[in-house]
Amino acid sequence: MSTRLAQGGRLIDRSKAMEFTFNGKRMTGYAGDTLAAALLGAGQTLVGRSFKYHRPRGILASGSEEPNALVHLGEGARFEPDQRVTTTELFDGLTCTSQNHWPSLEFDVGAINNKFSRFLTAGFYYKTFMFPRVAWEKLFEPIVRQSAGLGQVPKERDADRYEHFYAHVDVLVVGGGVAGLAAARSAASTGAKVLLIEQTNHWGGRAVVDGGEIDGMPVEGWVNKAVEELENMANVTIRTRIMGAGVYDHGYATGYERVADHTPGDGRPRHRLWRIRAKQIVTATGAIERPLSFAGNDIPGVMLAGALRDYIVNWGVSAGDRVVVVTNNDDAYRTALAVKAAGLNVPMILDARAEAGGPLADAAREAGIRVEAGKGIAKVHGGKKVTGVSVCAQAGEGASLEEIKCDAVAMSGGWSPVVHLWSHCGGKLIWDVEQAHFRPDPDRAPTSHDGAAFVVTAGSATGALSLADVMADAHAAGKVAGKAAGGKTSSKAAPEVAPETMQPIEPVWVMPQGAGPDKRMKMWLDFQNDVKVSDVQLAAREGYESVEHTKRYTTLGMANDQGKLSNINGLAILSDALSQEIPATGTTTFRPPYNPISFGAIAGEARGELFQPVRQTPMHAWHAEAGAYFEPVGHWYRPYCYPKSGETHEQAVNREVLNTRENLGLLDASTLGKLVVKGPDAGKFLDMMYTNMMSNLAVGKCRYGLMCSENGFLSDDGVVARIDEDTWLCHTTSGGADRIHAWMEDWLQCEWWDWNVYVANVTEQLAQVAVVGPNARKVLEKLNDQAGGGMDLSAEALPFMQWRDGKIGNFDARAYRISFSGELSYEIAVPASQGRAFWDALLDAGGEFGVMPYGTECLHIMRAEKGFIMIGDETDGTVIPQDLGLNWAISKKKEDFMGKRAQSRSHMTDPDRWKLVGLETLDGSVIPDGAYAVGEGVNANGQKNVIGRVTSTYYSPTLKKGIAMGLVKHGPDRMGEVIGFPTVDGSNTVVKAKIVSPVFYDPEGEKQNV
Amino acid sequence: MSDVVSALRGAKYEGFCKVEEAGLVGMVTLRGDLASKTLAAAVKAATGADMPDICGILAGEKGKVAWMSPDELLLMVDHGAAEQVVSDLSEALSGEHALAVNVSDARAVFHVSGDGAREVVAKLSPADMAALEPGTLRRSRVAQVPAAFHMDEDGMIELVCFRSVATYVFGLLENAARPGSEVGYLT
After folding, report:
1. What is the pLDDT of residues A970-989, one digit of tens each?
2. Cβ A605–B123 below 8 Å, yes or no?
3. Which end of chain A is more exposed for a tag (fewer CB within 10 A), N or C?
4. Looking at residue A124, what is its pLDDT?
5. Contact A988, A980 (CB under 8 A)
6. Does position A305 have pLDDT exceeding 60, yes or no?
7. Which of B98, B103, B168 sits opposite A610 (nearest CB)?
8. Which of A115-124, A252-261, A290-299, B87-96 bottoms out in mean pLDDT, i.e. has the lowest?
9. Scanning every residue of chain A, which has its alpha carbon at the shortest distance from the alpha carbon of B25?
10. Which domains does chain B have, with CATH numbers?
């Protein structure tokens, strides 16, 4: 059983005890503990269940590579699943529970899967697909869904806040171990601006645990000195608790800062995503120890040798009193010595290599530890915890030579450089036969826009495994990066480290090498996803040769540790099964983030009210106070209607329509796009942009215009006003302002760059109000009477389709006599700063004229009653103006305009194209939105042929019946015919409608022209 | 004219930095040939400032002028003077191809001041805020909307965005300036 030692623990403060709970059980740890250290210190070795077989799982590692120990952390609005205990800092009051079991961690019904593991082999999911479809739907899918996912989904809204931060540096150094510190020092010595980030909250990495001397002082002393030195350099920033998450093109990197994970609720942002632009990136990301594949290597108590040593040295926690060490390399001897130094027992070191020599083995023997060369573990004994091991010859098939009682096993299969960040952006790897690992190939680095490398590795991440090599490599890497980032040549000397003698590693992928099927089925590669040696071998037998395919087939490396421990072992097994060298198999792709990061960090500030920008007009606050029901139009929020107390939206809309037609309505039309187009070539330009002629529009007049894409399809419409000799003002749809502005600039900048035309978007400069209804003129004249405005608004002075500048009341106004409703109508533009006051003044003055504001739905109904088209209703990107009977707005005189050529192509001139008509239901009902009209016969799919569709459909309060517009085959030639629109609401009815003119209201246009 | 109001009527927030809406500011977009001497003279007459370099912003006794693109300047003057500036510019430049237009009310202006003002913007904009020197103006974005900003000699950042998103941008700045969220990187 694991426990807290009486002494030791360089990172903990024993004077500060911290209380926490695990599965409701109260436990105590110390400040400086990770949750993993605290759990082990409290004797909790069983921490979870594996994904597929629900096998008991203990803590395997001490860092971000931990596959097993994931917990539900926190409660309520701070509940989060899948939190890795090895990277969670302990805080007072922490609560966590274990995952993936029912009813309890100790007794888990799901562990029955373990009994059926023979049937739950690689490709289980894919194989079940092979059953009849019904079996998948009815039988397997419900079971799989029920058992899917390790953690539970949070149920409450996240209580925390998150943010981004952009930083620009010359050199980003990722990793604050001795290599990162050395690289940052040497990079800084070139004068470069350096940012050094470390994912944990302490500096020095594992070199401090491993021991040795740098510059004649113990590692820890050197680390403290280096940190102090860096902190005092003006061109260097060093930060802890930031994980290098990803490296992307052109030196872009992300850093995941866990600002307040250890101080929840203190008001600080929980996470901050650093978005870093670096000229050069140094990855000093260290190395990860590999497990060994022996039977029972997943039983709680089996731990990576380096991790077991970390717990003793860093946190004063022992994994067990009797620790068997099993290794194929020298490093694990350090663990044996650390265990011994802590006063605990190492019954045996099993070294799979034929010889166990060298200084570390000698030291172990001197310490009285029994060292057995050429030996391995045949089997680990125990269920929920290790009770002992059977020793065997590595060269054999696993016959037990001896059984040894122990409560922990420290294993080491060698060290793999952390190549993730190097690989994210295309850095390539080479297989180092001598060190038995993939390491970055310095000749094939990730390259930037100029073809030059922008990532360099430092220390163990390069593949250097001795302290001397690490420091020399890191020092050089920092200089290279600093220089490449524009720094000067530095003569700063490298830290001095005495070389050490190491015995070569001997790759061991299966232990013992001749293990039979029963043993291979108990050798775990991927601990979280339950992928074993036998699964990978099965995949190979079933024809999976690509490592990427094997990964997906077996789920190897697909857990949320992304194969940090399983990857190399798995592909070595696959290579062996395929009888090929490891480099021929290759690795799977490394993708960011290095470790999972929170969705909150990715979203940053974009949540709640800041989720998306909402555009507001100058009158927005009035609308909101008036209880408007808003609808989004583009990013604008526009009032849909203004329901009064007790009114439904439909009732409100009908009231607004009738009042506008009978009295006076006000529409906030500020969102309408307004583009000023000016220059000697502006007329020529607008003649190209619009289908009709704009160059001959007289100053002071307005003209409705259509804009098409170069493919002929109707894209936008609006009223154009000629302001002066070389200036026009083009109105666009509300959603189209930015798009049409960009469209104009596109043509001016890329195609007609020699035309003298300037465009400016003045949409937001102006608040615009549509003053509509029989009393429209009266209210405006009243404003003039009240405040002495000078604009003559009479029919003679300002006729229909003209505009004037002047004062209305005391407002600086431009008045347009245009109507989208069929009523007497003025659209008045005033500077946005006067918009709210103008709106208030109109409401004030309009009282006696029955003024009411109206919303977009009323606008839509009134325009539909008049047969006016709406971009986005009558058009959908496939409709040309000719389909809508708008031929009158298409110039026949002009040599060219956007879409002209396309509209003459055969499909566009096909008489069978659906064309716009009005539709009047026989029973007065409203045709459902989007309904299709059906004709005779069926198509190739056995569906009824369709002959048309509804584009706009409303209840007309004016006409007291349903009205609609639609596109119908040969529609204009079929006036008076009745067609049917089947409903899809399940009532199996057909709405019958007569084809009529789309202009339902005031076809002569008398009302608007008064 | 009474009741002339800016988008947020001078809203304020005090976090680790001070954020305030600057009220109405006169702004004129001028497009034309920036190499033209006539144009330079007209700009000088309107603002008292010389022509800025690329990405530059210069102040004169009557206003500021900022470089926006190879054929566009932004003139910042008194709100009440903007219409006159537009007509003066239009008249002065009547002999050449140019466009002057009043955009004062199409914009909202914010001031971010205090220690860490750069950090407030650096949480929202990908621009290099460490490199933002007085006399330069950056056209960039804050979160999801366009913004332009420059810093004065006292370290106050003036940020310009579209009027319709003033509430959103104020919310962004307020959120970024909340106490406890100091980054401690750009101080």
Report:
1. 999 999 999 999 998 888 89
2. yes
3. C
4. 66
5. no
6. yes
7. B168
8. A115-124
9. A833
10. 12-23+109-176 (3.30.1360.120), 26-54+61-105 (3.30.70.1520)
- DSSP string of A474-528, one letter each residue: HHHHHHHHHHHTTPPP--PPPPP------PPP---SSBSTT--HHHHTT-EEETT
> In this model, does residue A441 exceed pLDDT 70?
yes
Distance CA B75, CA B59 (A): 10
Strands A961-969 and A944-956: antiparallel
CB A606 within 8 A of CB A599: no
Give the number of other Cβ atoms within 10 Å of residue B3's Cβ. Answer: 14
The chain B residue lying nearest A275, using CA atoms, is B126
Q: Work out the angle at residue B186's Cα, subtended by the Cα atoms of residues B184 and B187, and round it to the nearest 5 degrees.
A: 70
Beta strands in A50-193 (DSSP E): 56-58, 70-73, 80-84, 94-98, 162-174
Residue A667 CB neighbours (<10 A): 26
Q: State yes or no: cis peptide before A512, omega within 30 of 0.
A: yes
Interface test with B, best of A605, A622, A807, A812 (most B CBs within 10 A): A605
Query: What is the pLDDT averaged over residues A330-351?
Result: 97
The sign of the torsion formed by the CA atoms of B160, B165, B170, B171 equals negative
Average pLDDT over residues B137-159: 97
The average confidence (pLDDT) of chain A is 95
Q: Which of A267, A622, A611 is nearest to B171 (CA)?
A: A611
- What is the rounded average pLDDT of the residues A484-494? 95
> Which residue among B7, B122, B166 sits closest to A166, beta carbon to beta carbon?
B122
> What predicted TM-score, i.e. pTM, was given to this entire model?
0.94
Dihedral of CA A128/A129/A130/A134: which sign? positive
Rounded Cα distance between A495 and A750, Å, is 57
A555 closest CA partner among A882, A889, A120: A120
Residue ranges of domains in chain A, CATH in brackets: 162-288+416-484 (3.50.50.60), 512-585 (1.10.10.1100), 658-870 (3.30.1360.120), 911-996 (2.40.30.110)
* Cα–Cα distance, A872 to A856 (Å, whole number): 14
| Chain B contact for A632 (CB, 8 A cutoff) | no
**Region label for A970, one of left (φ > 0), alpha (ψ between -120 and 50) or beta (otherwise):** left
Residues 96..125 of B with a Cβ closer than 8 Å to A: which?
97-99, 101-107, 119, 122-125
Q: pLDDT, tens digit, for every residue of A651-683? A: 999 999 999 999 999 999 999 999 999 999 999
Rounded distance between C-alpha atoms, residue B136 and residue A859, angstroms: 46
Is the pLDDT at A53 greater than 90, yes or no? no
Give the whole-angstrom CA distance, residue A96 versus residue A412.
30
| Best residue of A161, A237, A610, A741 to probe chain B, by most B CBs closer than 10 Å | A610
* Residue B70: cis peptide before it, omega within 30 degrees of 0: no
Kindly list the residues from chain A whose CB atom is less than 8 angstroms away from the CB atom of residue B129: 166
What is the model's pLDDT at position A560? 85
CA pseudo-torsion sign A299, A302, A307, A309 = positive
Q: Are A487 and A187 in contact (CB under 8 A)?
A: yes
Between CA B156 and CA B149 the distance in angstroms is: 10
- Averaged pLDDT, A211-216: 96
Q: pLDDT at position B135, please?
A: 96
pLDDT tens, A534-572? 999 999 999 998 999 999 999 898 888 888 999 999 999
ipTM exceeds 0.95: yes
Cβ–Cβ contacts within 10 Å for residue A378, how many? 26
Q: How many CB atoms sit inside 10 A of residue A581's CB?
A: 11
Task: Give the type of residue at A456.
Answer: V
For A491-535, how does the pLDDT look when each residue is reduced to its tens digit (9 = 90+)? Answer: 999 999 999 999 999 999 999 999 999 999 999 999 988 899 999
